[in-house]
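User: My notes are a mess, but here's the protein and zinc ion's SMILES. Can you give me a structure?
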Amino acid sequence: MSDALQKLTRNVLGAAAALTLSATPALAQGLVRDTEIEMVMREYTDPLLEAAELEPTAVDLYLVGDMSFNAFVTQGQNIFLHTGLIIRAENPGEIKGVIAHEVGHIELAHLARLQDASRGGMATMMATMGIGLIAALAGAADAGAAIMASAGQFAALDMAQYTRGQEASADQAAIRLLTATGQSGEGLVSTFERLAYQERLSQARRWEYFRSHPLSADRVSALRRNVDASPYRDIPDTPEEIAMLERIQAKIIGFMVPPSQTLSRYPLSDTSIPARYARSVAYFKDGLIDEAEAEIAHLLEAEPENPFFHELLAQVRFESGLIAESIEPSERAVELMPDAPLLQIYLARSLIAEGGEDNLNAAVLHLNRALIFERENSFGWFQKSLAHQALGQNAMAELATAERFYSIGDERQAHLFARRAHDELERGTEAWIRSAEILAVTQPTNREMREWNRVERERRPNFMTQG
Ligand SMILES: [Zn+2]
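Assistant: No problem, the inputs look usable. Here's the predicted complex:
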């Protein structure tokens, strides 16, 4: 592959980050997606990245649907947060502290050094594991889910094993970043103190996190000293931040623990927003749709403009077969939060399932917008292929299928479908060019490489000289 083409591949398709491969399964669960939770985690993370002089848009944030306490970073500036970290936190400061520590590892390039030490084990993981491909918290139980279920590949991800020296310097960086953003490091040290205590109490509770981030008494006491020295030590989380965390904790619990446990943790006597939120999800999971709708009605009464309450209502209806009734709340969610691609993808799903030319065309428009930001969302590509197919636009459906396979790293299938699309699409159109791009980056034949160069020369006369 020429340098110019390699560069283009990176630009067009997103950097395929190199991650350390290992035979040790570090994770069994997949990624989960949720606009609300991602938004809150972004609010915690972005100021810390800026303080570390890292570009927030260059750092991807992923939620791992796993109830154990863990957070880690990988090559290519990816931060992974377990849902278990979020639900175990007693306040936002604890999560921010852990994130600050992980940002510290990125800032100090600890992974780059690890990479040099074990070059033999490197592989371009992103392409093969199709990160970001797992369905939403309450998974999509349709044909799209099958292809998204290659989450097993995620298990091949190995976390870095940091040295004690690296841990100490990441702790120091964390305190520095928290201080630079006017925040307390109390959460970081209190998390470690609490978890270290739990670890000592029970041998069974070996947190994955402390296998990669070795915790010692010295480390905790050094951290405690640093935190106490910060002028912001006693700055508390704002009431808004605390309320928001309680909400997303309730949502995670609702989706990820058995309904009976959710209902005992949030008894009917509790009429707070988090309790109603958790219960509505628990009822939904139990198939008690009327009860779920009743709780959501209370939520919407309290906050009629909350896009996530509308989103949940749409999900409850859609997944209980009330397709037509799911469209209105889904549209409302998109209206209230037009920049959230996942909300658009869910609306498209409802519109496609309902069918009819107007709905299908509207779905394609939503997907086109959403997939600009969600290129790795195989579920979105799957929906787009369904919409085009239903509209009788076969070549476009094939191109969307090529994108779907590409997004999960199945280059062979991506190539196959891109080939079909390319042969059928109208020459020179954007879709035709895109099909050529996929052909060129997925094990192209010599003939396809010549074709690709021709396409690029037509499009950009100095393509091959842009070095
Ligand atoms: Zn660490």
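The pocket of zinc ion is lined by residues 101, 105, 162, 167, 170, 213 (CB under 6 Å).
User: Great, I'll file this with my notes.
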